[in-house]
Design a protein that fits this description.
3 strands, three-stranded antiparallel β-sheet
């Protein structure tokens, strides 16, 4: 295990003072179900922290380097921090080989695995933030993720349903859509989420998916269709 963490550190280009933070970042909830004596928590709290740190670094970079309107910058940011992008970034470090999963979860190599990798990538960013602070996090994100903006703009991949809805809603109403989990069900390795998207308190769309991100995209697509935007 320690050798694997050392290999991952080398791939990440960051040496942790507290190695347990990185080990926690690659510990999926399902692993604890089969290994209740595992000495570390799962990675969801680190994921929560990493998500916020990632969004701040990307927002700051876009604000300082581009004079574009808020709606455009928001769409670009969404394309840089979404699950598809984070899953791609995780492959640079072969993160898939290092994640601790239950046997059942380890067999899944489809869309659900992509979201696990994306969430683990956020957890790694959270671990870097706790271990090295904001500047270390900024260096890490600037090295591996921000260069992807060139491709995002060239291919216009920022035009996913969630980004499009946000852009349309801000332009038409001045309101940023918000998302809320309405329901979830199923075991950890086959979780399903139903999410609603709101403008203020008005429910304008719903979507179901095997992750919150997937359900949010489905809800945004539903809202765009219902609003004819």
């Amino acid at each position: 295990m320690e050798n694997n963490i050392s290999q991952l550190e080398k791939s990440l280009g960051y040496s942790f003072k507290n190695k347990d933070l990185l080990l926690q970042a690659v510990t999926h909830r399902s692993y604890l179900n089969e290994n209740p004596d595992w000495r570390l928590p799962h990675n969801e709290r680190l994921e929560f922290l990493g998500d916020a740190a990632l969004e701040l670094v990307v927002t700051e970079y876009l604000y300082e380097n581009f004079p574009n309107p808020e709606g455009e910058l928001t769409s670009w940011r969404s394309a840089l921090v979404n699950a598809d992008m984070l899953s791609v970034i995780s492959s640079k470090f072969d993160l898939n080989s290092h994640i601790l999963l239950s046997r059942g979860e380890a067999k899944d190599s489809g869309r659900a695995r992509q979201y696990i990798l994306a969430n683990a990538m956020e957890a790694v960013i959270g671990a870097v933030y706790l271990d090295g602070g904001y500047e270390a996090t900024k260096v890490f994100i600037s090295r591996y993720l921000l260069p992807e903006l060139t491709t995002v703009l060239k291919e216009k991949s920022y035009k996913d349903p969630k980004s499009s809805l946000q852009e349309e809603a801000q332009e038409r109403t001045g309101i940023t859509p918000s998302y809320e989990v309405l329901e979830n069900w199923g075991p950890d390795h086959m979780k399903q989420f139903r999410i609603g998207v709101y403008l203020n308190k008005e429910l304008i769309g719903e979507g179901v998916g095997s992750s919150k991100q997937e359900a949010q995209q489905a809800a945004a697509e539903d809202a765009l269709m219902k609003k004819s935007w």
